Amino acid sequence: QIDVFLARSLLEKLYLFQYPIRPASMTYDDVTHLSAKIKPKQQKVELEMAIDTLNPNYCRSKGEQIALNVDGTCTDETSTYSSKLMDKQTFCSSQAASNVSRYAAAVYKKGELHLTPLHGILQLRPSFTYLDKADAKHREREAANEGGDSSQDEAEDDVKQITVRFSRPETEQARQRRVQSYEFLQKRQAEEHWVHLHYYGLKDSRSEHERQYLFSQGHGLAENTELIKSPSEYLMMLMPPSVEEENDKPMAPSNVLSMAQLRTLPLADQIKILMKNVKVMPFANLMSLLGSGSDSTAVLRCIQQVAMLVQGNWVVKSDVLYPKDTSSPHSGVPAEVLCRGRDFVMWKFTQDRWVVRKEVATVTKLCPEDVKDFLEHMSVARINKGWEFMLPYDEDFVKKHPDIVQRQHMLWMGIQAKLEKVYNLLKEHLTPKKQEAHSARPLLVSGEQRVNMAKAKVKQNYGQLEKEFQKQKAEMKSNDTSGKMDVSSIRIKEEPVSDEEPMDTSAYEGLNNGLVNGLHAEDNPTDPLNGHLPGGCIDWVAQELKAFVSSTFKKQFVLTLSELKRLFNLHLASLPPGHTLFSGISDKMLQDMVLDTGCKQILVPFPPQTAASPDELKVYALWEAGDTYDQHRQVLLEIFSKNYRVRRNVIQNQLSQECGEDLNKQEVDRVLK
């Protein structure tokens, strides 16, 4: 343990000076040629230190030249260097830290640690104002030489026109700008007078006397009351309940809420903040966020002031998101126009679960960014379908609160009437599309559900057929006739068990209104179901696909999957309607056929930051074409499997080493092409 004492004798008087690394010709302890001055308000210090001109490291000729440039040939009281030699250096201070309350000077003596708080930390840097004086002297000499040729009479004959201006009274704003300007602050700092100090060396008796103030004057514990505190008082000193700390706390992001702070607000403000951040919320979720003690009647009364009912869910009102006198961050459109456009989107979702973005943009005449913001507030984009409302229809709320639903319906009728006048809505915009009841969920059957249903049907049919076979077998044994039944004539119907085989989904065709996995079924019976073809067409399709792949790679030799798919689509466009290749070719079938035709996939190490798509990164090459350049191409493909960018001379050297012959430029060009 070490006893700690707080010394207060030098409180608000002790400064820490940080000196630069001193040159060998300068000593900080030389007091005979050193002066100091300070500006207390600015905490600015200037020290003038002596330079040892007799030191062997001192360049005397350079010192004389600097003194001559600064003072000239004449020597008087205003001279910077009276000895005609640069024999001193000036150091100016700057504050190292604005807040030094955390720092103290410590002295350790006889097992005791004495602390004195610092009032300032100043860094001293060399001042080069003498160079400014040298430049001023040089300009004065040049001006004197130029003015020597003109006579005094000519100077008297020169007449200059003087313009008189009267300054206008300064306004308060102009005065504040002038006071805060850099020029004014520099002038204020220059007006403060220097206070000259006397420097005492390290071994001076006055320094020894002042150094004793670094120790606490009384060692009695009664005099150090700052260090005698109870644990609770000490904790309060470490963490005082300051109002400034509350103001210094950073502001939380606008989309982040503290539930503890939120519940201290009135109920109406809580609901408004929640809806403004969430935008769409079921009533049950809102009640769970407000806490168990909230009254549902009061919540319903408040929610209707900041939100509208859409498909049984509450959507925040447009004027809450876009207050008056605001504008769009994208287009600068005023809030009134934005509210009308967003109300149109909300009204469309009261008519249907789906909204088309193009229709909204056409009616509202707003920019695409604003329309996208409206839709993202309350819906989710679906590929090739449009924007679907974010939440399912809340049937429970509609059944429990029919009066609220009726009131909201009347409000929507009023909004619809306003929208008709503003946007001149056509009949097609007003009539909702035919859709199922809100309570009915859309009948969508996933692929996994189809597989499970097919497997269940297979097991059911297999059991029935097995029973029939056992029954027929028993009849055969009981039959006394000599004629034997041919067992091979009894054929058991095989149902698909594997996920890869076609399955009977006729019982479930009505679920999707003629849709097979979301796609419209065609009238052609040879079209594939779930990507599979009838058995008789598979071989013919494979032959056609193989012919296309072979002919394509014999022309191109190297293709990415993206380019191959593009060429295949062009090939399909040239075929007559009803061709077998229209039955459906997946990417996997196309890639498998490429590998079956003697091609190989080249794993080119593209850089990780490439912007290419996955299909553009898959590279396939014809490995053997049957010509004289097969070996050269294979060597070249091996090179590119190790690096995606190779110099030409490296390729030519590698081809020469692997093939054992020197290829000329034309042959290398042909292989590279």
UniProtKB/TrEMBL annotation:
A Gene Ontology biological process term: tRNA transcription by RNA polymerase III
Residue span(s) of domain DNA-directed RNA polymerase III subunit RPC5 C-terminal: 433-673
Biased composition (Basic and acidic residues): 135-144
InterPro entries per the UniProt record, alphabetical: RNA_pol_III_Rpc5 (IPR006886), RPC5_C (IPR045576)
Stretches of the chain forming a coiled coil according to its record: none
Pfam families in the record: RPC5 (PF04801), RPC5_C (PF19725)
Segments for region (Disordered): 135-158
GO cellular component terms, semicolon-separated: RNA polymerase III complex
PANTHER family, per the entry: DNA-DIRECTED RNA POLYMERASE III SUBUNIT RPC5, DNA-DIRECTED RNA POLYMERASES III 80 KDA POLYPEPTIDE RNA POLYMERASE III SUBUNIT 5
Name recorded for this polypeptide: RPC5 polymerase
Naturally occurring in which organism (per UniProt): Crypturellus undulatus
Gene (name only): Polr3e
